[in-house]
Design brief:
Length: about 525
């Protein structure tokens, strides 16, 4: 499919129009949606996968961590690969490899085979999301590039929310291999359509030599870091020699990587992008914002399922409401990028997200489904105001040949923020649950009228001795977990508030010589 004789884009090639633009948008958006979806669609299927392949649930999570690790390694390499082989060719090959390895995942008959296939799937798909944005911006009319950015941002945000819902439904009604098979028709359509429409619009190629040392340091550093984050909580973090070793290798490798790439003649990662003020501010705000935003999406389903007794499907439906207003408002936000100060838009997003996070922190264990839907619905107002303007901010001032590198590097830090968020959030929730459990247990004494009265009620109900104490412990555990999740939501709210001043360090105008909409 990736014809090596493809012509580079003619100088000043006009943007696509009409039906061709619509087809290109659908192909690129669906491929992006599919790749991001695969980061979360497997989560709810892990018990089924583990049972089918005769491994423990903890071993089953390797199907998740192997994909995220390989994808994270490839994302910073996007710019170098795209310059070497062309953005269109790289994107089409990436989608094709993603489809092929998705099918291999579905055919897996053992856990090692599935892990190997997921590693290959993640590596193949790594450049897809960043190049999707670059291709959209390169082929959209300048006046409508805000809309292109909105569509790209929404696929990146909505896909992780829908992943668990779709994964649960497919697993319950079919079987777990189908969560991989569904990628085939979508991916093939996207690859063929993109190639037919854009093969004569290939980007300029530069045949730079491979930076072998930088590549080894990147694979070693990011691989160890991602594996440490994915497995640290299960291994009790740095109490485990393995996690400690992974952490040390990651720190040493990434430190040497930065030093090497800054002095290399042909670096695999363009770290000089961080000399651009707006790129640094935009990526930092997005990464830290993702830590807080993803924390809500990680801890909320855990709390609903393990503490309040929600099923996986109902837990997913609670979270899904966040996408309703986000989907409806994305085109509106995209159309306003050149008219409203982007810093004000993102600040408004953080105000909304901080308020909704605080709102979630006020719920107790008796909260109803409807009461928890409202803050998630309102949160959807802030999502397009968060992601779409920030993408414009970090791309501002960059020439077209740096868009792929910038998008790849920013996408890596966004993914890393999600991984760090998962690791921190689960650990924090567990530690705060233990703390609140201890505090609540201390208040259960004969001198406490409430405790004495409740124990008497249990006795009247026939729950005496150990049975009564067991009921009390279950109630304490339920309330402790709820208080702990409230602490996490409160911390997310504070994080959004603290990020607001950072945004105003970005310097307008927020246009881009690469074609992103001007301000």
């Amino acid at each position: 499919m990736a014809n090596p004789t493809a012509d580079p884009a003619p100088a000043g090639a006009p943007p696509l129009q009409g039906g061709m633009l619509a087809l290109m948008t659908i192909a690129v958006a669906f491929s992006t949606f599919m790749e991001v979806l695969d980061m979360t669609i497997v989560n709810v299927a892990v018990p089924h996968i583990a049972g089918s392949l005769a491994v423990s649930p903890s071993e089953g999570t390797w199907a998740i961590s192997s994909y995220s690790m390989a994808s994270a390694i490839m994302q910073p390499l996007t710019g170098w690969i795209a310059k070497r082989f062309g953005e269109v060719r790289t994107f089409v090959v990436s989608v094709t490899l993603f489809v092929a390895f998705s099918m291999l995942c579905g055919f897996a008959t053992s856990m090692p085979m599935l892990v190997a296939a997921r590693l290959l799937q993640g590596a193949g798909s790594g450049p897809m999301v960043a190049l999707a944005l670059s291709l959209l911006l390169a082929n959209y009319p300048k006046s409508r590039q805000g809309m292109a950015m909105a569509l790209w941002a929404m696929t990146v945000v909505i896909a992780p929310v829908l992943g668990p819902i779709l994964g649960g439904w497919i697993t319950d009604n079919f079987s777990w291999p189908w969560i991989f098979y569904i990628n085939a028709p979508v991916g093939l359509m996207a690859a063929v359509t993109t190639w037919l429409l854009l093969r004569k619009r290939e980007s300029k190629m530069v045949k730079a030599p491979i930076d072998a040392i930088g590549l080894v340091l990147l694979v070693l550093g990011i691989g160890c870091l991602q594996f440490m984050l994915d497995n640290g909580n299960d291994k009790d973090w740095f109490a485990s020699p393995m996690i400690l070793s992974l952490g040390l290798i990651a720190v040493v490798s990434l430190t040497f990587l930065v030093a090497w790439e800054l002095s290399a003649k042909h670096p695999v990662i363009d770290l000089l992008l961080f000399k651009e003020r707006n790129f640094t501010i935009g990526v930092t705000a997005m990464s830290l914002g993702m830590v807080a935003f993803f924390a809500i999406n990680v801890v909320s389903p855990l709390w609903l399922q393990t503490t309040l007794g929600y099923t996986a499907s109902w837990s997913g439906l609670t979270s899904a409401w966040v996408g309703v207003l986000a989907f409806l408002l994305a085109p509106v936000v995209g159309s306003q990028l050149g008219r409203i100060d982007l810093r004000l838009m993102v600040t408004s997003a953080f105000v909304i997200l901080a308020g909704c996070s605080y709102w979630l922190s006020t719920f107790d264990s008796s909260a109803s489904y409807i009461s928890m839907v409202w803050p998630r619905l309102v949160m959807g107002l802030g999502i397009p105001l968060f992601f779409i303007p920030l993408n414009q901010i970090y791309l501002s001032g960059l020439p077209s040949e740096q868009i792929a590198s910038a998008s790849g590097l920013a996408n890596f830090f966004r993914t890393l923020g999600s991984s760090i968020s998962t690791a921190i959030t689960v650990t924090l929730w567990q530690h705060r649950t233990e703390f609140h459990h201890a505090v609540l247990t201390e208040s259960i004494t004969p001198a406490s009228p409430a405790a004495s009265g409740f124990l008497q009620q249990l006795q009247h109900a026939g729950l005496t001795g150990q049975r009564g104490l067991s009921v009390v412990d279950q109630l304490i555990s339920r309330e402790a977990a709820t208080l702990a999740v409230n602490d996490v939501f409160w911390a997310c709210s504070i994080t959004f508030v603290l990020l607001m001043p950072l945004l105003w360090l970005a310097r307008p105008p927020f246009g881009s010589s690469g074609g992103a909409v001007g301000h």
